[in-house]
UniProtKB/TrEMBL annotation, chain A:
Keywords: Cell membrane, Membrane, Transmembrane, Transmembrane helix
Organism expressing this protein natively: Herpetosiphon aurantiacus (strain ATCC 23779 / DSM 785 / 114-95)
Organism superkingdom: Bacteria
PANTHER family the record matches: HIGH-AFFINITY BRANCHED-CHAIN AMINO ACID TRANSPORT PROTEIN BRAE (PTHR30482:SF10), HIGH-AFFINITY BRANCHED-CHAIN AMINO ACID TRANSPORT SYSTEM PERMEASE (PTHR30482)
Stretches with biased composition (Low complexity): 572-583
GO cellular component, one term: plasma membrane
A molecular function (GO) term: branched-chain amino acid transmembrane transporter activity
Disordered: annotated segments: 561-583
Protein name (database record): Inner-membrane translocator
TrEMBL record, chain B:
UniProt entry keywords in alphabetical sequence: Amino-acid transport, ATP-binding, Nucleotide-binding, Transport
Domain of life: Bacteria
GO molecular function: ATP binding; ATP hydrolysis activity; branched-chain amino acid transmembrane transporter activity
The family this protein is said to belong to: Belongs to the ABC transporter superfamily.
Any one GO BP annotation for this protein: L-amino acid transport
PROSITE patterns listed in its UniProt record: ABC_TRANSPORTER_1, ABC_TRANSPORTER_2
Domain named ABC transporter: residues: 2-234
Organism the protein comes from: Herpetosiphon aurantiacus (strain ATCC 23779 / DSM 785 / 114-95)
InterPro entries for this protein: AAA+_ATPase (IPR003593), ABC_branched_ATPase_LivF/BraG (IPR030660), ABC_transporter-like_ATP-bd (IPR003439), ABC_transporter-like_CS (IPR017871), BCAA_Transport_ATP-bd_LivF (IPR052156), P-loop_NTPase (IPR027417)
Name of the protein in its database record: ABC transporter related
Entry keyword Nucleotide-binding: yes
Length: 583, 235
């Protein structure tokens, strides 16, 4: 088997990393997840011999689990279960890649099998961590077990029996997850729909289940997830402008600000107007869309760099405008001269200046009442619904006449004109559609945070959104979502938690060895370095994979058009070198 | 069918067309010949609305086209295969052709028109899923003409269809142009290759620095001494 060596090396590195963390950091969930990743890789290897896909997926799932544990590990071992579930998801997905199932039953059976395997490895990993590695490392495992018991079901039944029960629970949980996902995928595949529907079903289920797991495990995951989703919604809108229509927009945060401020002004005690969120969100989207037209109209003759500069200016102007429309000295009269005639304008505090607008009324529903800041679950589901609709709508838009007009305009504006495409309308519509989605995002953001400030919409927001679109893959929604999860996840979850982890390690070093912490001080404050990290990621991405992680096929072709002859040559060279192909 | 009356077109301050008047009748192939910079392409761009005239009238089937934007002129029945072909390099052949039918909404008719294009250009049918940019120069020209036909024009404007093509392909393209014309489409073709253009056209106009210096029957112009000297390379 040609790949064995590679897997062994990967496994060895993973094991070394796991051991290192275990030694330095006496929290065992982390080690368990890393070991789990290795075990799933090995199991995938056994499941069917040369399947690089499965091994890759297993490693990714294991890594994901490990990252989740880094993020929420320290005092929340329920994460091991999420890691298990995600691994079950990975295993299920990979199993489907190999053997597509056309009925819910067969899907459930296959999913259950994959889930059971994933559950078995999670349980095995927990077991190994608690009973083998922890004692060997001289670490007390009882605290860990206690946490697990509290998290799961058996608060009072302590001891070995409960540990075994927990392991069984993990196994059962993963099996059920796998079966559910499998059934969903099988059922979806049985429908006469496009082939990516099963994948969507498999992704949608965990997204819908996360709040429940979050509550069960008390992970406070939603606090980070909701802002991440808001940014993904914005990036999806920006993708219309940049990815579909090919218009570089460096001031997209302006529309986000317009959406948020519209909501804040119309739905808070600040101006004494208090319209229901359900109405205001539409108003905010409409105002943002009109602002999109306002930006689009003067920039019509501009292309490329020049357009980017104008949008950059627009992005700077809007937050400053909102800052200057309020605050300052208490109301007075501003006198303007209009053709020599003095006109008194009563100065109003429209936007609260630097202090912003606070509070903003939350949405209200009959059974739920006001959405509370303390309970994130209604917010989460509301956002999921908004995003689901946005994704559906943008998807339809891309495949519509309008979408084709954007594509033609991006490829060649003059030729598009010659095809009878109204380039002016197409451009304006791209700006205003893109702006509309950030209007929705801004409205939700304002209501969710409950207060807005001009500084929340500065240039860095536009840049981070653009990074999300580019990292994920211009013009491809799945790519944009992945890019958003990675960058925003890094920003709001991984980097802060990673910084915490480094601090803990450093403190412990200092305690055990009595040494200084100087060497790690730079790493300790990783959050300070986040823009540096994004910058490095962007530079590397542009050099090695300018089309993004999950590129749109056509965009990829546009960026690699020079490579075509080389590829053809290399294929020819391969054919020459391989006698079986030549013959 | 199409009339230009004393048309003046400018690029900024540059006076590109200095009072062009010409006429194209239903069913004709008319060619504009002339050297580089004579204003041949500008004339086409003026008709298709990409660079509208500053003064003068363009009449299509009796209706003035002044002030009608380029994208609307396509749905009025004039379609252009632009200079340099300008096919969508990253779209497939089929998608390029579909783009040509952008102004239309009748799926069945579009499909039958696409079959017609494939009949005219069997090479395109073989390459239907290939990206436009990977086609050879001749195939790209075929695609550009095919794409222009997809809007079902009554008047087809061709800008330098022979540019950059091998002589064999030039013959083929001109044969197809005649073929399209015989199926009822009026054609205005701008060419550097005056000999070929005069060979297939019914009538011709000779342009020099933005003005028409000679006009008439293609066969007659071919025998004209000045034309032979200046554009046909004969002494």
């Amino acid at each position: 088997m040609p790949n064995t060596k590679r897997y062994l090396i990967t496994g060895g590195i993973g094991f070394a990393v796991g051991t290192f963390f275990l030694w330095n950091y006496p929290n065992l969930a982390l080690g368990s997840a890393i070991i789990g990743g290795l075990v799933i890789a090995a199991l995938c290897l056994l499941y069917s011999a040369p399947l690089p896909d499965m091994v890759k997926g297993g490693l990714i799932a294991g890594l994901f689990g490990a990252v989740m544990t880094i993020v929420y590990g320290p005092d929340k071992p329920g994460v091991a279960i999420i890691a298990g579930m995600l691994s079950g998801l990975g295993a299920g997905l990979l199993a489907f890649q190999r053997k597509p199932q056309a009925t819910p039953q067969a899907g459930a059976a296959l999913g259950a099998g994959a889930g059971a395997i994933a559950g078995a490895w999670t349980a095995l990993a927990l077991f190994l961590t608690a009973f083998v590695i922890a004692p060997a490392a001289g670490v007390d495992a009882s605290e860990f077990a206690e946490h697990l018991s509290e998290t799961v079901i058996l608060a009072d039944a302590m001891g070995l029996a409960s540990d075994i029960l927990i392991l069984l629970f993990v196994l059962v949980f993963c099996t059920i997850t796998g079966a559910l996902l499998g059934a969903a995928a099988g059922a979806a595949r049985a429908l006469p729909l496009r082939p990516n529907i099963p994948l969507l079903a498999v992704i949608a289920l965990p997204v819908i289940l996360i709040p429940l797991i979050d509550r069960a495990g008390n992970l406070l995951l939603l606090d980070a997830l909701i802002p991440i989703y808001i940014f993904i919604l914005l990036a999806l809108g920006l993708n219309i402008v940049v990815g579909y229509a090919g218009l570089l927009d460096l001031g997209y945060a302006a529309f986000f600000a317009i959406g948020a401020y519209t909501t804040a002004m119309l739905s808070s005690p600040h101006l004494g107007i208090n319209i229901s969120f359900w109405l205001v969100i539409w108003v905010a989207a409409a105002v943002a869309a009109i602002a999109g037209l306002a930006l689009g109209a003067p920039t019509l003759p501009l292309r490329g760099d020049y357009l980017a500069i104008v949008t950059l200016g627009f992005g700077e102007i809007v937050p400053i405008l909102f800052r200057n429309l309020g605050g300052g000295p208490p109301t007075g009269t501003l006198t303007l001269r209009f053709f020599g005639l003095p006109i008194g304008i009563e100065q109003m505090d429209l936007t609260g200046g630097n202090k912003g607008i606070n509070p903003i009324s939350p949405p209200n529903l009959p059974l739920i009442g006001n959405f509370e800041p303390s309970n994130k679950i209604p917010w989460y589901y509301l956002l999921i619904i908004i995003m689901g609709l946005a994704i559906f709508f943008i998807n339809r838009l891309r495949d519509s006449r309008q979408g084709r007009a954007w594509m033609a305009m991006r490829e060649d504006e003059l030729a598009a004109d010659a095809m009878g495409i109204n380039v002016v309308r197409t451009k304006l519509l791209a700006f205003s559609m893109g702006a509309m989605f950030s209007g929705f995002g801004g409205a939700f953001y304002g209501a969710f945070i409950g207060a807005i400030f001009p500084s929340s919409f500065d240039f860095s927001v536009s840049i981070i959104l653009l990074c999300m679109v580019i990292l994920g893959g211009l013009g491809n929604m799945a790519g944009v979502i992945v890019g958003g999860l990675l960058i925003q996840g890094a920003d709001k979850m991984f980097i802060p938690k990673g910084a915490e982890l480094f601090r803990d390690i450093a403190d412990q070093r200092a305690l055990t060895t009595g040494g200084s912490t100087v060497g790690v001080s730079a790493l300790q404050d990783l959050t300070q370095q986040r823009l540096l990290l994004f910058g490095i990621v962007l530079v590397v991405m542009m050099l090695i994979r300018p089309e993004g992680l999950l590129p749109n096929e056509r965009r990829k072709a546009e960026l690699h058009s020079d490579d075509d002859p080389i590829n053809i040559n290399s294929v020819a060279a391969e054919a020459d070198a391989d006698p079986s192909l030549a013959a | 069918m199409l009339q230009l009356q004393n048309v003046h077109t400018y690029y900024g301050n540059i006076h590109a067309l200095k009072g062009i008047s010409l006429e194209i009748n239903q069913g004709e192939i008319v060619t504009l010949i002339g050297s580089n910079g004579a204003g041949k392409s500008t004339t086409l761009r003026t008709i298709s609305g990409i660079t509208p005239p500053r003064t003068g009238q363009v009449l299509f089937e009796g209706k003035p086209l002044n002030g009608v934007p380029a994208h609307k002129i396509v749905s009025q029945g004039i379609s252009q295969s632009p200079e340099g072909r300008r096919i969508f390099a990253n779209l497939t052949v089929r998608e390029n052709l579909e783009m040509g039918a952008f102004t239309r909404n009748d799926k069945a008719e579009i499909a039958s028109d696409m079959d017609r294009v494939f009949e005219l250009f069997p090479r395109l049918k073989e390459r239907v899923v290939q990206r436009g940019g990977t086609l050879s120069g001749g195939e790209q020209q075929m695609l550009a003409i095919g794409r222009a036909l997809m809007s079902r024009p009554r008047l087809l404007l061709l800008d330098e269809p022979s540019m950059g093509l091998a002589p064999v392909l030039v013959d083929l393209i001109f044969e197809i142009i005649q073929n399209i014309n015989s199926q009822g489409t009026t054609i205005l073709v701008v060419e550097q290759n005056a000999l070929m253009a005069l060979g297939i056209a019914h009538r011709a106009y000779v342009l020099q620095t933005g003005a028409i210096v000679k006009a008439g029957d293609a066969a007659t112009l071919r025998e004209d001494e000045d034309v032979q000297k200046a554009y046909l390379g004969m002494e």
